[in-house]
Every structure is written in C-alpha cells, then in structure tokens.
Amino acid sequence: MGWWAAxxxxxxxxxxxxxxxxxPERQPPDLPGAVLAPADGEVMEVALxxxxxxxxxxxxxxxxxxxxxxxxxxxxxxLVAGVEYVAGKFRAAYKSEAxxxxxxxxxxxxxxxxxxxxxxxxGVLARRIVCRVRAGDKLEAGERYGMIRFGSRxxxxxxxx
Length: 161
Hints:
Layout: H1 3-20, E1 42-51, E2 55-64, E3 71-73, E4 78-86, H2 98-101, E5 104-111, E6 115-122, E7 129-131, E8 138-139, E9 144-148, E10 152-159
C-alpha cells in the first residue's frame, strides 16, 4: 500500500469524525414567545400527548441522522426546573415507541411564556447522551445544553394551542 493510500485510510475516518462533532454558531431569532427547534434533523412525527411537566402537549419528534449536527439547544429562555435520566433500551430512534422505552434524558424548562420539555433519546448506535444542565440553571433561547452522539432523536413537548 502506498503512502497516499495509507493517508486516505486515516484521513477519511478523521474527517467523518470531525464532521459529526461539528458545532456551528447559531443566532436565535429575537421573537418574543417563540419556541425554537432544540435540534437539527428531520421532523418525523407530531403527536398529541399528556406530558408530566407540560400537561396536554404536542410532541414534536426530530430524528438526527449521523450527518446532522447533534448539539441540543434550549428551545426557550427559562429556568431548568428538573432533569430526569432514565436508563432504557436502545431501539431504533425513529420509531414512535423510542420516546418511552429507550434510554433518555428529559429537561423540564419553566420558560418565560410557557412550560416546555426536551427529551434526548438514545438510539441503536447513539448510546451516549450528554446533558450539561441541572435543576436551577438558567438557559437562554438557543443556548447549548447537551448532545447525543451518533444518530438519535430529540423530542420537544410544547403546550397544546
């Protein structure tokens, strides 16, 4: 194997790794009362549910492929009212049941305009949830608070209109 081939064997995975862990700057819009997306990805489902923190809610499920940015950001400015980690299964994150059976971490936020919750959900490959906030912390809208590594899902719970 030549020098260039050996360099390619090292460079391709290294570039893929750097691409996965990228963290671009974001400037949240200045829209009072707006709820921002907590993650990049594809909206897979919107369902009406009853959430322990929000109450009657709409659950917006966002699937993050390995090509998406995996940083989670606060959807609203507010106080972290609670953080709950639940060990669970590692089923496909795009399936509806993943929100309730997979390993997950839910952050409850007392926003300026409303209560919301964000749930980080591990998937088949994504078995590492990072949540850097605790109850009592204050977050600004769009502020980074965690990440999920290697394909996953983020659910946003907002009050029903």
